[in-house]
Design a protein that fits this description.
By secondary structure, the protein is mainly alpha-helical. The protein has 15 helices and 2 strands. It is globular and about 60 Å long.
């Protein structure tokens, strides 16, 4: 029985996600992996670039899902951690000549520390107040990156241009294809680590805090430690996603990381299904491709079209892609019984 089947047989309320329901079944996972491996072999370089950004945004949405779906803490400031990761990689590569692969763990560790420390003052806040505090962080980050004393490293308003790395060992593949597979390996590793985290003792503590903070504290869970740890882990993964985004796009600038981007990530989490990790890739696809679809329908009213499409999706599937997966699994189970 797959994880989705287990969810389908439970009670109708699906807000509280069991730890085993945060992943796909083994067969479905292998099919999805096969599609991701084959995709760049049959599409053009531009589509490969889009698929790479899909994986990167999927990582950023997954990080937010760990924080919100896992521990129940709302954040609208993920774009700030994404920006830190992007600038760390850009500065290390262009100013100090550090290999692009080595910048990823540095970005992740630095963002983990920043997120962990930010979690301490956030302990006094919850719900919409925590969301507003993190939103302030997202709104302030572009302005901080433009400060004069940081300009020698950040490039100020003009940003930094990054050289796109070639495939190693003389591999006969394009730069875009190499970066796609490089990103895919990183994404798979982080996804597996995230699943194991949520199935571990720490993950159970996260979900206990999410479900009932007072009860979790009464059971001996160190609420302060695990809430700050969730912030740190989420920020660290987001920082790695930001590093990958900078390497792939070859450019970083302060205005690329505005609060609008933070809202898009939050939107991607909701569309993908809060607490359902595989939905992160669906949410990332929504925030990447739906705006393009809206513009193709009406360039002058693309924002209005996007709003209508978003309203339709939220109205029809309020629990996101996870709800669609449950319905499909139930339909498949009925078909097999015939």
């Amino acid at each position: 029985m797959s994880a989705v089947e287990e969810v389908a047989t439970e009670a109708p309320a699906i807000e509280a996600v069991p730890k085993r329901a945060m992943t796909l079944g083994t067969g479905t996972s292998l099919v999805m992996l096969g599609l991701f491996i084959v995709a760049p072999l049959v599409v053009k370089n531009f589509v490969t670039f889009q698929l790479t950004m899909l994986l990167i945004y999927g990582l950023a949405v997954l990080a937010l899902n760990i924080l919100t779906g896992g521990s129940g803490q709302f954040s609208l400031g993920q774009s700030a951690f994404y920006a830190v990761g992007a600038y760390v990689s850009a500065i290390l590569m262009e100013t100090y000549g550090v290999n692009y692969a080595l910048t990823l763990p540095i970005s992740g560790i630095l963002c983990f520390v920043i997120g962990f420390l930010f979690g301490f003052p956030a302990l006094r806040l919850s719900g919409i107040y925590l969301a507003l505090a993190t939103f302030a962080l997202a709104a302030a980050m572009p302005q901080l990156l433009k400060l004069g004393f940081l300009e020698p490293w950040t490039g100020g308003v003009q940003g930094l241009v990054i050289d796109k790395p070639d495939a190693p060992f003389g591999l006969p593949i394009s730069q875009d294809m190499w970066l796609y597979y490089f990103t895919l390996v990183i994404a798979i590793a982080i996804y597996v680590a995230s699943v194991n985290l949520l199935r571990s003792r720490s993950g159970r503590a996260f979900m206990a805090i999410r479900d009932n903070e007072i009860a979790a504290s009464a059971m001996g869970v160190n609420v302060a430690l695990y809430k700050t740890l969730a912030f740190g882990v989420s920020a660290g993964i987001t920082g790695i996603a930001g590093s990958l985004g900078a390497i792939v796009v070859q450019f970083v600038a302060p205005d690329s990381f505005s609060y609008n981007f933070a809202i898009q990530l939050f939107l991607g989490m909701v569309v993908g299904g809060v607490g359902w990790l595989p939905g992160s890739i669906v949410g990332a696809a929504f925030i990447i491709f739906v705006p393009n679809i809206s513009e193709s329908i009406s360039k002058g009213l693309s924002g209005a079209v996007f709003g209508v499409l978003l309203f339709v999706v939220i109205y029809l599937v309020p629990h996101g892609a996870r709800q669609v997966a449950i319905v499909c699994q139930q339909a498949l189970a009925k078909w097999r019984k015939r």
